[in-house]
Design a protein that fits this description.
seven-stranded mixed β-sheet, 973 residues, 34 helices, disordered N terminus, single chain, Pept_M16_N, Insulinase family protein, alpha+beta, 23 strands, metalloprotease, zinc
Length: 973
């Protein structure tokens, strides 16, 4: 019998604190079936022609009608069951007249079916506790269509109802004329919203790389012409051809017995009968070299496209025919050797880029593309205009890898990295969510391969190590860069920079192998690194009153929150908050915020530069993420129990002994400048660049710096700004997960306890608080240089901030969900918006203000005024017309499930009490988290709407095409 996890018991404790009844579990318990493994075939259907050890936690079966299924018991998160229905048909299965039908069908199956009335799918699944978009979703690719549902609080009744609904969608969709009429504008809007420079590049890349194959023209979104010509008869013909039991697999992983889950599949899918013989799968073709190609260097089609707003980049692909293989151990050993070969080249390319020179980044990557090609891709981002030098330098590194075997030292380094990658899933096996396990099996089916248990993967890898010799890696490297044809695409910002012929010649030109970036030197031991200081004294250890979380205070003022959760095996999360965050940085120093997020870690620690940081982490699970928050800077990482002490050393050493290497800063400056213009290619890009700036009252610290502002920064200025930030302000450390408390405190004494006492973070009157935008009915008009039929609209109402208001911020989340539902109903079909318009609430806990409720949508420029009008009407409706009981239930049940699922992990509590060492009130708010999100009334929602959503409280922003933006501004003047 599986032990109840600490995460599950933690949740039970929390629910008891708020006196909320726990929902009944699945009727058949694990205890009832302990020791009786489900009956399985000797060789499950997934493992035919394979000697890979089957993952026996999966229960595989096949119905008499040909539908296959796989079920698995998994309790992460508790109570959830994840269902995936995979249809072996995507856009490559379409005829010329059916382009876009596979994706169109994905929409239509949600529109109306045997058990779901027209347009009610979202509400139906919300009543079962599943959120639209996160818990309920679907995706169409070139080779498959997958319907996804993560059902929280899965009871026998809700599971039965869910399988009934899903079976009706897949086996009996309505596909009426009214269905097509309702969903066609949404699909066409999705096509519009995915347009722009990025889409043009993607389409051109497919046409160039896969010329002569269906993949060159088979984007899942389809074409306007074929979609507008679709009829119920033509769409049903595609459906009947491919939606057949033998083409469908149902995958279920969740908190129930596999046999119980399999019974639901049998009950609701066994009756599905489809007459006639199945259609054979279409041919996807093979890459073909031009007739006059050089057999030793078969370079085919190359193309140059000009996109003024995108960074210059070169991608070329060595293409081979894709063939289905038997997924054997020997085949996987070959894949491991391929991975080693690519890792060695990529490490050399990164080393060359770090030195400064002709390219910012470069990478090689092998991929089996849409069962159409086995390809090795080489991607290069040049620095400056000399793209030939960048391409030549990258090819020279690859040429060395093709001419000479790697050293055993290089191989051993990458083996150590792979070992960690394979070992972590073994250590954390009990933490793997059912949704991920289900998605992994979907992916295996799509690429026609198997899945194996983590222990088997690690064992096979370890047994294979003698095969990873320099000669073997050299052979696999040569195979990766040998193919039927090589094709290339160059994106440039300027007309005349290159020609198709020049790019082709650059790929044909011979290059001399570059041996200078072969990496030498053994892994670095932490034992040889300088000490942070004298080990610190523990001043106090006190309980927080929340679960088993304790606070440790050191004599130097550092405070630590500790929660050993050994039932989360193999995972330790570490977070370090220090300094004053955005509030600490002077507005005139704002560009250094962007550079810091890119280069502060890479600038080095103690005696370790970037290369040394890589070497010291070899064979370890160490992380070093950096983020800037409103009132603190933050380091974070997920590590392992064995690596915790060294992880703490890296973080503490960054505060005590920062290094200031120049090259990472120079590289960050180049990257920031290259990326800036790309923001203007779409409305979403402009919002990514500017929304936070306007939401924070045009505070310079939240502005994305322009290339000119980046040019004015210096390496000396970088050191000045970040030295001050690293040296001042309180330090809070959080360690949650699988660790020994005594050992952790000892490690903390040598690291954070050994820091010198810190000065308060410098705050000026101008920088201490962050401004709010002024209410206005006149939108801020921003422009983009993307497609002329793309726009975005934002309307925002300021709310508040601070830890005192945390309970109210949770009630505001209920209000925003109500707003979202009404907005989707009013806007999605009325305005032809594909991606659901949504409303979100922010509440900065570290500030007394700065929060907001924001509604946004991507739409056509002509629809922007209608969106503003509709949002205003909904806001007023919420003030005058409180929600019904059903409206509240549709919102509250998914929120209840989101909170209870999140609370099954210690990471949830880590986020909730972040900053509690300086503001203990945050701990008490955890006890009310579930009631705050789930207990309310129509009157409370109406009162909050009246307080915050009044028309005179809002400000608005629109992103429109350049010419329309100029006209709009002129008209308002």
């Amino acid at each position: 019998m599986q032990k109840i996890s600490r995460a599950a018991s933690t949740l039970a404790c929390l629910l008891l604190l708020v006196q909320t009844p726990i929902q009944p579990a699945i009727a058949q318990s694990r205890a009832a079936s302990a020791g009786t493994a489900p009956a399985q075939d000797a060789v499950p259907w997934l493992y035919k022609n394979s000697d890979v050890p089957p993952d026996r936690e999966w229960n595989f079966g096949e119905l008499p009608n040909g539908l296959r299924y796989a079920t698995r018991s998994n309790g992460v998160p508790p109570g959830q069951v994840s269902i995936r229905i995979r249809v072996d048909a995507g856009s490559l299965y379409e005829t010329d007249a059916e382009r876009g039908y596979a994706h169109f069908l994905e929409h239509l199956l949600f529109r109306q079916s045997k058990y779901i009335a027209e347009g009610t799918a979202i509400a139906t699944f919300q009543r079962l506790g599943a959120s639209f978009g996160s818990d309920t979703n679907a995706e169409t690719t070139t080779t498959q269509t997958v319907f996804k549902l993560d059902l929280p609080d899965a009871t026998p009744a809700s599971l039965d109802e869910t399988f009934k609904l899903l079976s009706g969608m897949v086996t009996a969709p309505t596909l009426s004329a009214s269905n097509l009429k309702s969903d066609l504008p949404i699909v066409l809007a999705e096509m519009r919203e995915r347009g722009g420079a990025a889409k043009r590049v993607q389409d051109t890349m497919q046409q160039v790389f896969y010329a002569g194959q269906p993949l060159a023209e088979r984007s899942p979104i389809g074409t306007v012409e074929t979609l507008q010509a679709a009829t119920p008869q033509s769409v049903r013909a595609f459906y009947q051809r491919w939606y057949r039991p033998a083409n469908v697999t149902v995958i279920v992983a969740g908190d129930a017995e596999p046999a119980v889950l399999a019974e639901y599949v049998r009950k609701w899918f066994s009756g599905w009968k489809v007459p006639g013989k199945p259609a054979p799968a279409p041919s996807f073709g093979d890459p073909v070299a031009p007739a006059d190609a050089d057999l030793n260097n078969p370079v085919g089609k190359t193309e140059v496209i000009v996109e003024p707003d995108l960074p210059a980049s070169m991608t070329y692909a060595i293409l081979r025919p894709w063939r289905q293989v038997n997924d054997t151990i020997v085949y996987n050993q070959g894949l491991m050797t391929d991975a080693l070969a690519q890792a060695i080249i990529n490490r050399r390319l990164e080393s060359k880029a770090r030195m400064g020179g002709s390219f910012l980044t470069a990478q090689v990557n092998q991929d089996d593309v849409a069962r159409s090609a086995d390809a090795t891709f080489v991607a290069v981002t040049p620095l400056g205009d000399d793209w030939r030098a960048a391409l030549r330098d990258v090819r020279a590194v690859i040429a060395d890898a093709l001419a000479n075997p790697p050293t055993q030292e290089e191989i051993d380094r990458e083996i150590a990295e792979l070992e960690v990658a394979f070992q972590v899933p073994v250590e954390q096996r009990r933490l793997l969510p059912g949704a991920k396990l289900a998605d992994d099996l979907v992916n295996a089916l799509d690429i026609r391969e198997t899945v194996a248990g983590p222990e088997d993967v690690l064992r096979i890898f370890r047994e294979s190590k003698p095969l990873f010799t320099p000669a073997a890696v050299l052979q696999h490297t040569r195979e990766l860069f040998t193919g039927t044809v090589t094709r290339g695409l160059f994106i440039t910002q300027k007309e005349g920079t290159a020609t198709d012929a020049a790019v082709r010649q650059a790929l044909l030109d011979p290059v001399q192998p570059d041996t200078r970036v072969r990496l030498a030197g053994p892994p670095i031991s932490f034992d040889g690194l300088p000490a942070i200081g004298q080990p610190g004294r523990v001043a106090a250890i006190t309980g927080t009153g929340l679960l088993d979380i304790e606070q440790v205070e050191f004599a130097n003022g550092v405070k630590v929150l500790l929660w050993p959760v050994q039932e989360e095996p193999g995972r330790v999360m570490v977070k370090v908050r220090f300094g004053g965050g955005y509030r600490e940085i002077k507005p005139q120093d704002a560009p250094y915020l962007t550079l810091g997020q890119m280069a502060l870690v890479g600038a080095g620690v103690a005696t370790l530069g970037q290369e040394e940081l890589d070497r010291v982490a070899t064979g370890r699970k160490l992380g070093f993420d950096f983020d800037v928050k409103d009132a603190a800077f933050e380091f974070s990482a997920e590590t392992r129990p064995a690596d915790l002490a060294d992880q703490l050393y890296l973080f503490a050493a960054k505060l005590a002994m920062p290094r200031w290497d120049v090259n990472p800063v120079l590289r960050a400056k180049a990257a920031a400048k290259i990326q800036y213009e790309a923001f203007a290619t779409s409305p979403q890009g402009v919002l990514n660049r500017d929304l936070q700036f306007y939401q924070r009252g045009q505070d310079k610290r939240f502005e994305t710096p322009t290339p000119a502002e980046i040019d004015r920064t210096t390496t000396e200025g970088f050191k000045r700004v970040w030295s001050e930030a690293l040296n001042s302000g309180p330090v809070e450390v959080q360690i949650f997960g699988d660790f020994d408390k005594t050992a952790a405190i000892a490690a903390l004494q040598k690291t954070f306890g050994a820091l010198k006492p810190r000065q308060p973070a410098p705050m000026t009157a101008a920088s201490a608080e962050i401004a709010e935008p002024r209410p206005s009915d006149t939108p801020v008009v921003l422009t983009h240089r993307g497609d002329p039929d793309q726009a975005a609209a934002i309307i925002s109402w300021p709310t508040g901030g601070g830890s005192v208001g945390i309970p109210e911020s949770r009630q505001l989340e209920i209000l925003t969900q109500l707003f979202t539902n009404r907005l989707m109903d009013a806007v999605r079909e009325k305005l032809g918006v594909s991606y659901a318009p949504y409303v979100f609430s922010t509440w900065p806990v570290d500030l007394k203000a700065g929060g907001s409720i924001t509604a946004m949508a991507q739409l056509s420029p002509s629809a922007v005024p209608v969106f503003f009008q509709t949002a205003d009407e909904i806001a007023q409706d919420l003030i005058t017309d409180p929600p019904t009981a059903d409206e509240l239930a549709r919102v509250i049940e998914p929120l209840r499930q989101q909170v209870t699922r999140a609370a099954s992990s210690s990471a949830f509590f880590m986020g909730q009490i972040e900053g509690a060492t300086s503001d203990p009130s945050r701990i008490s708010t955890v006890r009310t988290v579930l009631t705050d999100y789930t207990q309310t009334s129509p009157e409370k929602m109406q009162e909050l709407a009246a307080r915050y959503l009044g028309k005179d409280n809002s400000w608005r922003l629109e992103v429109v095409p350049e010419q329309k933006g100029v006209a709009a501004v002129a008209a308002r003047r």
